[in-house]
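sanity check this chain:
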Amino acid sequence: MSDVTVQDVGPVPAPAAIEAPADRVRRLRVGGLMLVFALIGLGLAIFTKSGKATFQLVSGDLQNNLLGLPAQPVALLLGALGVLAAVAYVLRRVPQKYSGWLAISLGVSFIGAFLCWAAAGKTFPLANQFQGTLNFATPLILGALAGVLCERAGVINIAIEGQFLVGAFTAAVVASTTGSAVAALIAAAASGVLMALLLAVFSIKYLVNQVVLGVVLVVFATGITGFLFDQFLQEDAAGLNTPEVLSAVKIPGLGDIPFVGPILFNQTALVYLTYIAVAVVTFVLFQTRWGLRVRAVGEHPKAADTVGIKVKRVRYSAVLWAGVLAGLGGAFFTVGYAGSFAKDMTAGNGFIALAALIMGRWHPIGAMVAALFFGFATQLQSQLQIIQTPIPGELLLMAPYLATIIAVAGLVGRVRAPKADGEPYVTE
């Protein structure tokens, strides 16, 4: 046998280090969006006025607990950090598993630079910003959790907006007539279940297209609540539409933690229920047998059926439990925050909850984070109007919805819904 000379071509890269073309396109697309925001943040920093940016750390306290920062130097530092994070993402200077931290770093630096620009020479109510964020995010979290339960089981729930409306209406009427907040919350949850039952029956039993069905249910809820409001609540507003708003309950010890305590632990019972709901849904979906069955019927219902799982029964249970959460989310608009019911008062928040579900990658924790992001954007536009930031009011009103579109379109990344999401199952 003749000798064979093997030429050394160097180390062969590991398969994990080879970037697929689709991954490269996604990285450049998301990285380009990140770089745009980073440059905007740096531009804002350059044009930030000299002087102090004062941040109010305690709601209602205008004299004490103020944090003053040199506006332009801090904004420039944050803007530069944002650019570094975006460039590092585009050039893959950080392992892929840590890329999410780069996006978080960019978001924090952009928001910080923006706030320094807006608050230069003024006082920005930071405590009110985070308090309002939690208020706006609470129904979104509950609605997104309802969507997680439904879609993990393979049922698309476009009807969250309708469940919000019915829950808000029911809570207002029951609280006004009984004077009981507990009864109002129970009634709101029950009304959410009734709406969910319509969704379940028509989508699971009668195999109606779930997207069309969801839209129809939203229109139905809008019409029925508007009709009842005109016929009864306007005629007797004092008796039927004057619910008491839930009072805040301070948790001893935790409520006294500086800055964080008053925001997180001096809240209404409905906000505390939201905390519990996030933990319970996460635990149930990923740590219990029922949760495993829900995820199984959402991914591969036929395989689940072959091992003895009752696919339709599991889907019914998931959708009905989701109705409880969506009904409570609707109750927040009346007994949890505003008081009286008004037509179309949910203002599309059910659809934003659906966007939070997608942005959160069909995971309860991710959906909660996305809902907080949308709540932050909504509260920010009102705070900027208060401090008279030189941004047109119309643009500020657009900001939460624009942030929703950008976040879902650009930052969700390569994710997919449960494989059988929206697909009716017919037993063979």
Summary: The chain is about 65% helix and 5% strand. The longest strand covers residues 52-56.
